[in-house]
Amino acid sequence: IDIGTDELNTENYDVIVIPAPSIDFTPDIITKLGDFLYNGGNYERDLIYVQNGYATQLPNISEFLAEWKIQIEPSVIIDNENMVQAGISAIGQMTYAPTLEIADTETVGAVANATLPIIAPQARPITVLSKNNETVVKEVIKSAASSELYTGEDEAGEKGAFNVVVKARKETSSGLEIIGSDVLVIGSPFMLDSAVLAGNNTYNNANVILNVINETTGKEA
Q1: Do residues 37 and 43 make contact, with C-beta atoms less than 8 angstroms apart?
Q2: What pTM value is reported for the model?
């Protein structure tokens, strides 16, 4: 759909996927996204946002994500100790990708082969903000503690484990029932590259991402 002109009708759509936008959204589109997730107070709608690896100046989108306690940083995660070489179809070449760790087993669920790596080429770190609102953020998938941030400067940046996938949730009560909407943010578009997902005997990306989306949207299989 054209997010700028089409109606985000909550009767027709349960989930919106925003795949790596390269230009910022207008305030009207941001309002439309908020209205979709609020759903007239009925919540129970979800948004999956995949960060563009190259677009760093998206102030309106950044402000929207900040309301969900999420901030995507302009640096890139590298890890010289925990990485693999991977072919990326979107750029038509091999690249080195940090391997990741599952931070929230409840959201990720069971994977058939836990020895396969989860990879995130050109991932941008995600910071969980401290805000006084009802949003609860889960850190779902992180880089290893040996990873560091590359900012374009020659010297090494901050070192540590950084969020690559997070899930934010806003809830309310409806009678005796708790209802809510979720925003799932993925910090690397190449985690979802067709070559990476197809290599499900080489990487765990397909299984892990599918599990996370199923859990976010309430699907059991």
Answers
A1: yes
A2: 0.95
